[in-house]
Amino acid sequence: MELRTMSSNDPDPSVPSRPRTEKDSRDGRSSTYSTQSVERWLLIVAASHRSLSILLLILFGLLQHPFDASSCVPQSTLATLFTRWDTTHYLSLASPDRRGAEEHSLNGSIGGYWWEHGVAFQPALPWMLRLAGSLPLVIPGQTWSAEAAIAITSTLCALSSIACPLLLFRLGRKHTNDEIFSLTAAFLSILTPSPWAQITPTPEAPFACAFLSLCLLLSSSKAEDDGVEPRPSGTKETLEPSNRPVRPARLVLAAVLGAVCSALRANGVLTSGLLLWHILWDGAGGRRGWTLSMLRCLFLLPLVLVPVVPLILVQVWMQEHMCGPSRAQAHGGSLSEEARIPPYCSDGPYSFSAYSYVQKRYWNVGPFAYWTITQSPNLLSAAPILMPMLDCIWTYYFSDWKSVCRRTLQPWLKGAHVHHTPGVQSRLLTRHRPHSRGRILTMQSAPHMLVVVHHATLSALLLIVMAHTQISLRLAIALPVVWWGAADWVLQGEQGTVGSKRETPCDAKDQGEEKDDGKTSGSKNDSRSCATGAGGKAAVALTPRARYLVGFLVMWNILSLALYAGFYPPA
């Protein structure tokens, strides 16, 4: 692989200068701030946001009386302020006996998966709650403590959510090699629209941490493959495409993380698609062809099934405990004849009909089942998260739809290997083509991001068509494409002036054409004027949709905490 780097002192004739957030050193090095210091500040900001969210949640919980079923939950301890919505179900599943449930007024609930509707909640978080609540048992005379379960699990979830922006920053830098873009996306993700889900015993934060770690393991940075540091924004370099398969050890660890994801949330089974892609699409059909890579694929292909194992185990458990005569006996003979033998009892444990049956019957989950007039506020509340996600997907696919199709169909095409234009150079050029709308993420700029975009497409379809659409607010932290699209919106307006509309990006003709000797006909003042506003000061003017998005994130961070504390929707 060849690496060609242009010094920062030499202006790039095809790219307008971008307002830098870091001071450039005179000797042409990247910046005075190291990546470690950037990551450290990212963690500090994330930890501060989570701490402030905890304080606001406690404050809102003390200032209002909880609505609906949580009104009977005792408010004797601060830990009970974190018990709302799904947390009440998780706590009832974690409680080892009826006494533990009755103490928290979980009406009719008893420890474990006693009722069918509880199977909709994956077992990982109840297991964490039960284990955390069992820690006081080491003290003589103590029993299982729901307060300890809530406090310890909430702390673990908060720590997981603090790590998520850092993981997103590293993932974006691997795919785009652009630190400013990746850092913008990471900072925006701190303002995830469901801050309460990051500090309470809910599976979203650990799920996001496991999923982003899985994506990091499976992603291959072109720069890292050759021992080159990722470039800072504004430095021009050209990298030849590489198609190196992921190492087997990373695939094994990624499969384990996929199982963790599906044990936390059922949509974690989609990680099997990521594994399949990196085993079959990247592991086979490379420069060496199918002959030498077929054995490797066959050896690693069983890893695709690992993320599905938790859901299969849930199905097997339901077959054993929810079917047959023991079903009515366990419930005191209170079930009707139709309820004694549900339809999934005759389908087998590998059909996944039990889980879909529970979701449809008890939680109204199904194709367009949620699309009703009464649910329109919930659908609209998810729009600010779904819009940048869908916009990013659309832009990425149609930036080069032919390459997307060839890459997606690669294992079935003759010749197998699909060549791409050099990633970084293509990104810098396509930012100023009329049809690209100044977008950063395209098929040419980040070809290895295609599998993540495919995953985001499936997730978006499930959220819009099948699920309760407002849970997009909770899952946003685990959807990198949401924040990449949001960062794209923000950075589109970076060359405007304060108080004015965004200016048109400078073209190569405005700055001078590049000559054979590497010099430019444009002056430094022309290059600098593209990044400055009135009065010669660099300014960042957000586009209207970027302003609306950032305003919504800030507003909803506060409002959602107040709604959650009072047991009000959406949740």
Automatic annotation (TrEMBL):
Key words, A-Z: Endoplasmic reticulum, Glycosyltransferase, GPI-anchor biosynthesis, Membrane, Transferase, Transmembrane, Transmembrane helix
Localization per record: Endoplasmic reticulum membrane
DNA-binding keyword on record: no
E.C. code: 2.4.1.-
Protein's UniProt keywords contain Lyase: no
Function statement: Mannosyltransferase involved in glycosylphosphatidylinositol-anchor biosynthesis.
Name used for this protein in its record: GPI mannosyltransferase 2
Protein source organism: Ceraceosorus guamensis
